[in-house]
Structure to design on (276 residues):
């Protein structure tokens, strides 16, 4: 066995890379601990007469968009979610990103965020397969196990997709398992079995129904067999077709930007519901 002798510059570079990786892991862990502490404080302060897991909390919200994390500093979805929750920011939904990307130039005002995660998280199974009690997805490379429990009314549904919007869900992390805990889950039926052009549903703008001809109102679906994870948007910004693409096949652990909704006047807050 032979060993390569590193130059002082190479040794310093390797040491710096290890230190930066360790600091990044520490930063993520600190954010997780901070969120758990906030959850614990919230639970401790709840009134006994309020048994539900949903409560009112002040979140910054408004009609504008702003960049929370740029694509150049892209993070895995769970880290982007933790950052948004810590800062009381609402991650822009898939439908809101469609409004920014299609038929207008709003996307240019936040161009540094793309490609980005949205606050719309989904789960679907193989074509023709029931949703069941929970949709499970093992992410390649990291081997993280993503789980989205299915409401009882939807468990026998086939060729369907379930959807939740931030901030109406949280992510429970236990080792390599990530469980979506959602207060509000919607069902979209006739979820397409293959990639192609479709019309988006009226609430979340998720492609559904029959394949259609290319048009400004169509969305191009990218899917895989089974997946749990957020919608990603905004890859090739200068090709209008890609600005209409709805990507449901990215690994949640890859780095992407994050955009949040923002108030027109800095510091103004609006109450929205949040699941803990």
């Amino acid at each position: 066995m032979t060993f390569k002798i590193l130059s002082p510059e190479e040794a310093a570079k390797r040491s710096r890379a290890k230190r930066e990786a360790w600091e990044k892991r520490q930063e993520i862990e600190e954010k997780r601990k901070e969120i758990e502490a906030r959850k614990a404080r919230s639970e401790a302060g709840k009134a006994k007469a309020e048994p539900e897991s949903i409560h009112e909390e002040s979140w910054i919200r408004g009609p504008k968009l702003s960049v929370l994390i740029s694509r150049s500093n892209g993070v895995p979805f769970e880290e982007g979610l933790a950052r948004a929750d810590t800062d009381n920011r609402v991650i822009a939904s898939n439908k809101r990103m469609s409004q920014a990307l299609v038929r207008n130039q709003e996307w240019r005002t936040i161009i540094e965020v793309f490609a980005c995660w949205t606050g719309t998280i989904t789960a679907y199974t193989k074509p023709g397969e029931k949703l069941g009690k929970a949709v499970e997805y093992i992410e390649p490379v990291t081997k993280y196990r993503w789980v989205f429990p299915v409401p009882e009314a939807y468990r026998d549904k086939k060729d369907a997709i379930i959807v939740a919007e931030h901030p109406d869900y949280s992510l429970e992390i236990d080792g390599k398992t990530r469980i979506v805990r959602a207060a509000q889950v919607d069902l979209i039926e006739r979820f397409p079995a293959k990639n192609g052009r479709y019309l988006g549903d009226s609430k979340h703008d998720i492609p559904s129904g029959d394949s259609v001809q290319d048009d400004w109102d169509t969305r191009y679906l990218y899917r895989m067999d089974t997946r749990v994870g957020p919608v990603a948007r905004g890859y090739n910004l200068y090709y209008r077709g890609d600005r209409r693409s709805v990507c449901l096949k990215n690994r949640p652990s890859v780095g992407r930007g994050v955009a949040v909704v923002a108030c027109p006047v800095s510091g103004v807050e609006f109450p929205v519901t949040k699941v803990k």
In short: The longest strand covers residues 116-124. The two ends are 53 Å apart (CA to CA).
